[in-house]
């Protein structure tokens, strides 16, 4: 990989120069007939690709992009973000024609070297995803009367930047699992964008190449072809030859004769004869063959989400089903540990020695390390959720302490107010008794009338005081009950019951993992 001499800023102008964007220019990641290809970073450190184009190749390959592929790219193809010119910051006079595109990660040529060193099951799942995605991309392009014509392995991107995981050609040991997940989870891209008249925005070809030349040139050498627009039927046929060569390469490796033999076999089994012409079977028939192979493995599963294609192993199914879920109740942990389709018990059983008994060709997939990863993943999910449970208990306990600190003085105040209310009530009763006595005497002696009136007035004042104290007590009781209800709502009984379930039913499954001691401590404290 070539490096830029120094990190620098560039100013990119879209076509028409009515809008400019500043990018950080990174490594030069390729150079071909079109020009140089650089990594650039935009806002929020988003990785993008800048293709610096030579003038004649720019005009040739992008003259109709704006009206065609730029506005309506085929599915699974790298998207062109902008077409225009750029110059380095401070060098306004040196302008270059360029294209800003999505960054799709390392190309398949580099990725194949890495997948050959990791688990067979990851390699197979990734290869299936590449084949299904490439096939879907070709299909959508052909439906739009477009064709690629340049399906080199360097024009298929893995969606993973291998620089983050590989040093000196070797996968960094503590990044291996993360890399495997990325290879399984990230989308695969085809590049470059295509239009109606060119064999591909990065290359065209003169006439028709022979089958042997296509195989050799596409996958065993790095041929760059330039020339006149490719005949549509030749272009579509060439795309399909390239697809079968890709299939052979992934299936058989880099051996020329093996790839040729595989492709010849697939070509003969898939083609149809119509009035003496050779034409491949419909793409959906080829897809069915691939999906049948995936299903027949009894191990891999094919998923489509938002038009993106994925092929999962049991451990990936389990990871996607449970890793991001928040498990808080005993019932949720029972489902997690049950024998349901995507549970740990059900999927871990597929790692047994008999899981491929009906399919001997899959013996290579019997990897003890995958079962260990499954157990470790189970432990990781347990640990994550137990930590959430413990934090929830800690938070609720803190809130209950705070509520208790509010309720204790409130309870004392309510007791004091009730005693005061009782005292005032007794005063009112005493006054009532005096009033009755005075009223009786007033019938015989009018001099007691004035005293009776005074007692009655005093009683009215006491009654008003009683009403006020009663209202205050009511408000305090309502406030206390609100705190008390919240206190009860913050009970940790359910969380503690869940922790007891984990302790009794889950810990025994993870004794061999490095999370066991920490989990045991968390659920028993």
Strand residues, percent? 5-15%
Q: C-alpha Rg, in Å? A: 38 Å
Biggest β-sheet, characterized? 6 strands, antiparallel, barrel
Distance between the termini: 54 Å
Model description:
It is a single chain. This protein has 3 domains: 8-102, 2-Layer Sandwich (Phosphorylase Kinase, domain 1), CATH 3.30.200; 108-312; 316-525, Helix Hairpins (Orthogonal Bundle), CATH 1.10.287. The protein is 52% helix and 14% strand. The chain has helices at residues 55-62, 108-115, 120-143, 176-185, 211-219, 232-252, 256-270, 283-296, 314-322, 330-336, 344-349, 368-444, 448-489, 493-505, 516-524; strands at 8-14, 20-31, 36-41, 47-53, 80-88, 96-102, 156-157, 166-167, 170-171, 189-190, 271-274, 277-280, 301-305, 308-312. The strands form 5 sheets. A 6-stranded antiparallel barrel has the order 1-2-3-4-6-5. A two-stranded antiparallel sheet has the order 7-10. The protein has a two-stranded antiparallel sheet with strand order 8-9.
Short description:
With 525 residues, the protein is of the alpha+beta class. The chain has helices at residues 55-62, 108-115, 120-143, 176-185, 211-219, 232-252, 256-270, 283-296, 314-322, 330-336, 344-349, 368-444, 448-489, 493-505, 516-524, and strands at residues 8-14, 20-31, 36-41, 47-53, 80-88, 96-102, 156-157, 166-167, 170-171, 189-190, 271-274, 277-280, 301-305, 308-312.
């Amino acid at each position: 990989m070539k490096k830029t001499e120094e990190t620098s800023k560039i100013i990119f102008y879209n076509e028409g120069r009515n809008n400019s964007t500043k990018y950080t220019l990174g490594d030069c990641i390729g150079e071909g007939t079109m020009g140089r290809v650089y990594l650039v970073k935009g806002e929020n450190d988003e990785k993008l690709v800048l293709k610096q184009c030579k003038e004649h190749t720019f005009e040739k390959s992008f003259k109709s992009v704006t009206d065609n592929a730029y506005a309506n790219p085929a599915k699974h193809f790298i998207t062109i973000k902008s077409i225009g010119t750029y110059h380095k910051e401070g060098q306004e006079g040196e302008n270059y024609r360029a294209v800003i595109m999505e960054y799709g990660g390392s190309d398949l040529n580099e990725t194949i070297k890495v997948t050959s060193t990791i688990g067979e099951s990851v390699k197979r799942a990734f290869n299936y995803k590449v084949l299904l995605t490439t096939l879907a991309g070709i299909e959508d392009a052909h439906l739009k009367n477009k064709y690629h014509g340049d399906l080199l392995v360097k024009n298929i991107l893995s969606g993973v930047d291998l620089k983050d995981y590989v040093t000196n050609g070797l996968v960094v040991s503590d990044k291996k699992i993360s890399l495997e997940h990325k290879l399984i989870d990230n989308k695969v891209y085809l590049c470059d964008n295509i239009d109606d008249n060119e064999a591909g925005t990065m290359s065209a070809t003169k006439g028709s190449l022979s089958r042997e030349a296509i195989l050799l040139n596409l996958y065993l050498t790095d041929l760059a072809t330039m020339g006149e627009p490719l005949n549509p039927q030749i272009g579509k046929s060439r795309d399909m030859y390239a697809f079968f060569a890709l299939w052979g390469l992934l299936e058989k490796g880099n051996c020329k004769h093996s790839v040729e033999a595989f492709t010849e076999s697939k070509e003969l089994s898939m083609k149809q004869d119509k009035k003496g012409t050779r034409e491949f079977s419909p793409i959906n028939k080829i897809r069915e063959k691939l999906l049948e192979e995936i299903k027949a493995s009894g191990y891999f599963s094919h998923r489509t989400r938002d038009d993106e294609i994925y092929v999962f192993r049991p451990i990936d199914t389990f990871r996607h089903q449970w890793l991001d879920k928040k498990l808080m109740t005993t019932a949720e942990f029972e489902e997690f540990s049950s024998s349901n389709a995507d549970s740990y018990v059900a999927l871990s059983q597929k790692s047994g020695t008999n899981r491929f008994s009906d399919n001997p060709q899959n013996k290579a997939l019997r990897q003890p390390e995958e079962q260990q990863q499954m157990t470790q993943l189970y432990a990781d999910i347990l640990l994550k959720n137990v930590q959430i449970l413990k934090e929830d208990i800690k938070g609720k306990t803190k809130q209950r302490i705070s509520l208790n600190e509010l309720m204790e003085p409130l309870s004392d105040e309510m007791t004091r107010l009730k005693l005061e209310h009782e005292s005032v009530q007794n005063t009112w009763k005493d006054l009532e008794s005096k009033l009755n006595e005075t009223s009786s005497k007033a019938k015989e002696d009018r001099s007691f009338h004035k005293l009776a009136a005074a007692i009655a007035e005093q009683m009215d004042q006491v009654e008003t005081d009683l009403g006020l104290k009663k209202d205050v007590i009511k408000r305090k009781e309502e406030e206390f009950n609100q705190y008390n209800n919240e206190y009860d709502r913050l009970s940790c009984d359910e969380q503690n019951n869940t922790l007891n379930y984990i302790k009794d039913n889950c810990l025994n499954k993870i004794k061999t993992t490095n999370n066991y001691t920490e989990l045991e401590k968390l659920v028993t404290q």
